[in-house]
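User: Fold this; tokens only.

Assistant: Input:
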Amino acid sequence: MHETQRKRIIDRHRDSLTRHGYHPHALYWSNREIQEIRFRVLAEIGIVTGDSVLDVGCGFADFSDWAAHTGRAVHYTGIDLSPDLIGVARERHPDLLLHIGELEDGGFEPASFDWVILSGSLNEQLHDGGAYARRMFLQMYTLCRNGVAFNLLNARHVQAHDLQSLMPDEVLAFCQSITPRCKLIQGYLPIDFTVYLYREGKA
């Protein structure tokens, strides 16, 4: 990601945090219910208690709370580009491993985590036709032992100048070039879709 794009994202989150404080609106979610629907679909890839999870674009690390409250106490690591969001996350979760930066800044070794997830953090419009997102899918898959789950905005239903949306079938086809063990999930929200990528023998 270009430095100007990084700065824009950091500045936008600093502004939203100033306006909303600790609230889903600071992460550009409409409400907590929508946020948690996405969490549920991500977790249904197979995440269970005791698994290690890397949350890319983790925001306030809310997935760790949601997982614990739904009986999935995981070993959680988060990374987010925004130092302001990570600052709040560290105050709320001093026991968690939380990193500032893009995924490539984390210095993670291949196959470091059972699962790698991403929720909403690729919705920023980068005007690159999804090239950055595709690089992220590859990096995430490299870091997982069991699988990857991520969600995106569905271009069939969302066309906005300031939001990135992609076509589900095109994203699925790209993911199938990484591994044939992929699954497309739709219907849980009208504007969203989720993709699972599994390691061989893990689905």
